[in-house]
Write a structure and sequence with these properties.
about 180 residues; 7 helices
């Protein structure tokens, strides 16, 4: 299996039952369920596989929106008004603070410092979105607004900078 990667796409916004979770519950889900997916990845009969690793090639800061449900509404607003609804959508300070913690928790979990053999890293989906309706999918906007944190140097684990997933959970307001 040398050089083989299991590509995982984890989104809480696609699951109906997770969209209604509180901020702390969203991060707890990352720290528990998503992290378990990383560390239980690449084993064969209880022993580490030979070369198979997991990479998280798609994830975002979106947690409470069903993109599929909103796209028809978005398209209809363009037809009727000539511009996408919520094109200038702004994120509140509290929402941006939560997004920062949500992103940090995902980065720390997907890097899996406690299981470095299994995890090969991550990619945020997407680099840029037009308009504001789907702001939580916009990496560059996240950097501009501060909810995508400054990433550590390549050889420094994110956990050393952001703390453990549970440290991040404890810093998160449940509002």
């Amino acid at each position: 299996h040398n050089g083989t990667y299991l590509d995982s796409h984890i989104y809480q916004s696609f699951e109906v039952h997770t969209r209604a979770l509180s901020p702390k519950q969203h991060i707890a889900l990352v720290c528990q369920r998503d992290h378990v997916d990383v560390v239980q990845c690449c084993y064969d009969n209880g022993k580490p596989s030979k070369g198979l690793k997991r990479i998280f090639a798609e994830w975002s800061a979106s947690f409470d929106q069903s993109v599929g449900d909103q796209v028809p509404y978005l398209m209809q607003s363009i037809v009727q008004n000539g511009i996408a609804d919520k094109f200038d959508r702004q994120l509140s300070l509290k929402r941006r603070e939560f997004l920062k913690h949500f992103v940090q928790a995902q980065i720390v979990s997907y890097e899996a410092l406690d299981a470095p053999i299994e995890s090969a890293g991550w990619f945020f989906w997407n680099i840029k979105m037009e308009g504001g309706m789907f702001a939580e999918w916009d990496f560059l906007r996240g950097i501009r607004e501060g909810w995508i944190p400054t990433l550590p140097e390549p050889n420094e684990p994110s956990q050393h900078v952001f703390g453990s997933c549970y440290d991040i959970l404890n810093r998160t307001e449940d509002d």
